[in-house]
Amino acid sequence: MKSGEQFRAVIVGGGPVGLTAAHSFALAGIDFIVLEARDTCCPEAGSSLVLNPASLRVFHQLGLEEQARKKSAEHERAVLVNYSGKTCKDVRPFTAFDQSVGQRPMTFHRQDVLKILYDNLSGENRAKILVNKKVVDVRTYPDAVEVTCADGSTYEGTIVIGADGVYSKTRGFMRKLALEASPNAAVNPEKPYTAYYKCMWGTVPVPPGLSPGDHLDCHSDLGVSSMFLTGRDRGWFFMFGLLEKATQERKDYTEDDKEAYAQELAELPMGPGLRFKDIWHTRHSAGMSNLDEGVLDHWGWNRVVLMGDAVHKVTPNAGWGLNSGIQDVAVLTNLLRKLLKETPTPGAVPTLESLENVFRAYQEARRENMQEVFDYSATQTRQSARDGSWTGWMHWLVETVTSVVPHFDWFMIRYKASKLVSAGHALDFLGGWEPFSGAVPWAHPIRPLMG
Ligand SMILES: Cc1cc2nc3c(=O)[nH]c(=O)nc-3n(C[C@H](O)[C@H](O)[C@H](O)COP(=O)(O)OP(=O)(O)OC[C@H]3O[C@@H](n4cnc5c(N)ncnc54)[C@H](O)[C@@H]3O)c2cc1C
Asked: Which SUPFAM superfamilies did the record assign (predicted)?
């Protein structure tokens, strides 16, 4: 293996984070290739994705905002019911986002996000997304990396980026290679995430009485909760449940498991006058998994670096998983672009030391914020599906007291959620424009576009 003449990033995984990286790298002038295991980057799998204003700001910079607005619904109404189905709150707190950061979160069908990303790559860049390329080996050399796929094909590059999700193979190779290089190397655990909750999700037609942008929640003290979101033309349910025992093992739920769980939660309220049994039979599709949680301590090693669910995994109640991955993309793109621009000989491949410095700076820029996002997400899950522990009762007490405080949700969004969102990075070499501004300043402002 010898050094390539030009820098190239081999991105493992053509999910939403890998595809966002493809757009960002293309605009930054960073050569890349994406290797995706499935036969398509846009499968009809998963449920909704809520993009927060920080992600929408990046999408705007990538030229994707217009398509995104056509395919999504802005958050409008928040309804909370208790386990008996009684409405505790029916409010419209999301105007707080309009005032704070100038933009509300938007709800998409997951496949639509993938299609927006994939379809809007130029022909030249789309040709760099290769499907049916399941990565089975990663090797590092003094000047390069080599990635091998299940079909026997190999790809060389300067770095390899693991955007291959919660069960990341790249993460495993990073660990293995670091330990081979030094048995005392500081590495991530082999199984770095732990699940305390499970979730079944699915797509259904919008039930009567609901409108685009509705967000319904049902909380309970029995270790279960439900959430229902409406988009432009469909709705999505999320049925959360506390696992009997925390686990680090992967669990693949079967159709029978889903049916049994649906029967178990049939009477769980989803919103005013709506129970789970009313919508389960209308589903187009449903999925189920344990909700892994964790933030890794080592985001990169040598020529290998991780982003998205491969390096942090949060529960989905607060909708921060992909939004965090988009932040990873923005920060890593900015740092790599700067490095490549500053390389003494134009076009020369940066040294391993300079790449490792970039990976360190990337982790430093993201790790602390990610922990805050992680804690926020974990708390939301535990406040919703409360257990019988004292923390469960504390969550109950806080929720009961705050549910009678006028405009409480508005204040939480204005002073807590907006603060997290406004910490968001964007691509520092591209401009942006107005709606993404309000009373809360962005920690990393972008240059306003002229005209
Ligand atoms: C029910 C639910 C609701 C959610 N809602 C939201 C939300 O509203 N907002 C939000 O921000 N986040 C949400 N999330 C989280 C979000 O889905 C993830 O954070 C996001 O998908 C992570 O993207 P990723 O690209 O890192 O990983 P993935 O989406 O897992 O994509 C990884 C890709 O890598 C490919 N791959 C895997 N292994 C290999 C290999 N060996 N070789 C090549 N390719 C490989 C996979 O096929 C896949 O395409 C939700 C999650 C769940 C479960």
From this structure: FAD/NAD(P)-binding domain (SSF51905)
63 torsion bin: left (phi>0), alpha (psi -120 to 50), beta (else): left
347, pLDDT greater than 70: no
| The most confident of 231-235, 304-308, 414-418, by mean pLDDT | 304-308
Give CATH superfamily name and number for 9-75+107-191+293-383. Answer: FAD/NAD(P)-binding domain (3.50.50.60)
Q: CA-to-CA distance for 149 and 132, rounded, in angstroms? A: 9
pLDDT at position 433 over 70? yes
Q: Is residue 105 lining ligand 1, measured as CB closer than 6 Å? A: no
Q: Give me the pLDDT at residue 46, please.
A: 76
Closest CA to 232 of 71, 45, 79, 51: 71
Q: Cα(133)–Cα(18) distance, rounded to whole angstroms?
A: 14
- CA distance linking residue 376 with residue 312, whole number of Å: 14
Asked whether 269 lines ligand 1 (CB < 6 A), one says: no
Comparing C-alpha atoms, which of 128, 116, 104, 105 is closest to residue 16?
116
pLDDT, tens digit (0-9, with 9 covering 90-100), for 408-418: 888 889 988 99
Question: pLDDT tens for residues 47-87?
Answer: 999 999 999 999 999 999 999 999 999 999 999 999 899 99
Tokens of 374: 């992680």
For residue 12 and ligand 1, the question of a CB distance below 6 A is answered with yes
Burial of 434 (0-12, 13-18, 19+ CB in 10 A): exposed
Pocket flag, ligand 1, residue 134 (CB < 6 Å)? yes
Domain ranges of the chain: 9-75+107-191+293-383
Amino acid in position 215: H
pLDDT, tens digit, for every residue of 78-108?
Answer: 999 998 999 989 999 999 999 999 999 999 9
**Which atom of ligand 1 sits closest to the CA of residue 169?**
41
Whether 239 and 101 have beta carbons less than 8 Å apart is answered as no
